[in-house]
Amino acid sequence: MNLTRTVFFISDGTGITAETLGHSLLSQFEGIDFRQVRIPFVDSADKARHCLVQIRQAGEADGVRPIVISTLVDSAVAEALREADALLLDFFAAFIAPLEDELGSRSSHAIGRSRGVVSSRDYTARIEAINFTLAHDDGVSTIDLGQSDVILLGVSRSGKTPTSLYLGAAACPPTCTNTGTSFSACRSVRSGCRGSARNGDRAAAIRRSRTAATKSRRRRR
């Protein structure tokens, strides 16, 4: 078995839905290195044919056909993509027809409707929570810290920023911020302060790894 496979997430929107669904499937397969490529805003047959070129090149480089996970709504665009020499997993083709039969109703086939099922109030709350997190990340600002539901404190590389962003994007997001190691920030918090610890050797190893990765990207440029 080839332990490296290229997976394309192709969508007529941002591709986040295709990527999320794809990750749920791929996570069930251990020991395989999935090289993931997201191609968003494929809203015409011409763009789909351009994807075919990338898919073919990936197959030639890997020596095995890629996997394509698609959430294309337009049937003409989806049909153009079917020419790919790849395992094509088309979520709309797989589920829309059975749902139409069950509901006795034709689907709208409208692009970008996945975000419409979430109420605007919930969506706005998530955006505001993430914006709040970014505005106060790593102690950039201490304004309105009293509005925080959670404040994360901890040494560098202990996971404060990703944790606070994850909480901000939750279904019922708290207002969360990461203030680095400024313990005085806890004085005005409404609910409580949470500390984040990290083994010193592990934190140093993460810092060295990220520094090396940054230097490597700069050399490639």
Mean pLDDT: 77
Strand count, sense and barrel status of the largest sheet are:
4 strands, parallel
- Total tally of structural domains: 2
> Structural class, from helix and strand content?
alpha/beta
- In quaternary terms, these chains amount to single chain
Q: What is Rg?
A: 22 Å
Fill in the CATH topology of the largest domain. Answer: Rossmann fold
End-to-end Cα distance, whole Å, is 34 Å
Please tell me what the overall shape is: globular
Strand composition percent: 15-25%
Q: How many E strands?
A: 7
Figure out the total of helices.
7
- Unreliable spans are 181-185
- The secondary-structure element order is EHEHEHEHHEHEEH
State the CATH architecture of the largest domain. 3-Layer(aba) Sandwich
Q: For the largest beta sheet, what order do the strands appear in spatially?
A: 2-1-3-4
Helix content: 40-55%
CATH level 1 name of the largest domain = Alpha Beta
